[in-house]
Amino acid sequence: MGFFAPTNAGYSGIYGHANGQGLVRAYSSGWPAGLKIFGPSTLSPDLWTDGSTNYVEMWSGATSSFNQYATLDPGQRVDWTEYWYPINDTGGFNFANNQAALLLPGTESGAEVALAVSSRIAGELLLFSGNKEVARWPVDLGPGQSLRVSWDKGAESGEGLGLLLQSGGQVVARTGQVP
User: Fold this and answer.
1) Whose CA is closest to 174, among 122, 135, 130, 127?
2) pLDDT tens digit string along 145-165?
3) Is the pLDDT of residue 119 over 80?
4) Residue 87 has what pLDDT?
5) Which domain holds residue 9?
6) What is the number of domains present in the chain?
7) Distance of CA 164 to the CA centre of its chain
8) Nearest to 6 by CA among 25, 28, 23, 30
9) Do 171 and 120 belong together in one domain?
C-alpha cells in the first residue's frame, strides 16, 4: 500500500488499532505540501522489522508527490518545521498540533474522548455539547501516556460536540464546536 494525500489540515498521522500505537506529524497548515504513507504488505516483514511485525512509514516533502519536482535557485533556501511524536492507546485522533492529539468521536450514548501529548502537560480537558460545557477531566500527562474517558450524554442532546485542552489558562488544543 502506498498513497499520497493532501496536507492542508496542519497535521497528519497513522494509527494501528490492532496494537494501539500511532505517529502524529504536526506542521504549518498547507506547507509542506507532500504526504506519503507506505506499507510494503506484499514483501516479507523480515526485510523491514524484527519479529515479523508489520511495517508502515510516513514521508513529507516540499512537493505533493514523488512525480513532482521542486527547484532551488542558487542561494535560495526553503525550510520549515515539523513535529513528530508517538501516541499510544488513544484509539486514533481527529485533531493534532505540535502539543497534543485529540480524539472526539460521538457515540449513540455520548462520546469517547482521548488525548495524547508531545511533552508534559498539566491542565484540564473540557467537553462541550451544544456550546455548553458538559464534562471536565484533570490532565497530568507526559509523552507516551494517554487519557481515554467516556461521556454519557444522559438528557443532553450530544449534538455539536467540542473538546478543549487547556493548561495554565492557555488553550493547548481544540477540536469540534468549542465556544
Assistant:
1) 127
2) 999 999 998 877 768 999 999
3) yes
4) 97
5) 2-83
6) 2
7) 14
8) 30
9) yes
- Assess whether pLDDT exceeds 90 at residue 35: no
Grid cell 526553503 in the structure block, residue = 78
Specify the pairing of strand 161-167 against strand 170-176.
Answer: antiparallel
Query: Does 124 lie in the same domain as 74?
Result: no
Q: What is the pTM of this model?
A: 0.87
Question: Could you read off the pLDDT of 47-63 as tens digits, one per residue?
Answer: 877 777 777 888 888 88
Of 32, 51, 83, which closes a domain? 83
The enclosing domain of 114 has a CATH number of 2.60.40
What DSSP string describes 116-174? EESS-EEEEEEEEETTEEEEEEEEEE-TT-EEEEEEE-TTS---SEEEEEEETTEEEEE
**Dist CA 149 CA 163 (whole Å):** 12
Helix (H, G, I), strand (E, B) or coil at 70: coil
Q: Looking up cell 508527490, which residue turns up?
A: 65
**End position of a domain, from candidates 83, 107, 136:** 83
The answer to whether 22 and 90 have CB atoms below 8 angstroms apart is yes
Same domain as 79, residue 6: yes
Q: How far is CA 101 from CA 41, 47, 64, 162, in A?
A: 27, 31, 24, 14
Q: Give the count of beta carbons closer than 10 Å to the beta carbon of residue 96.
A: 26
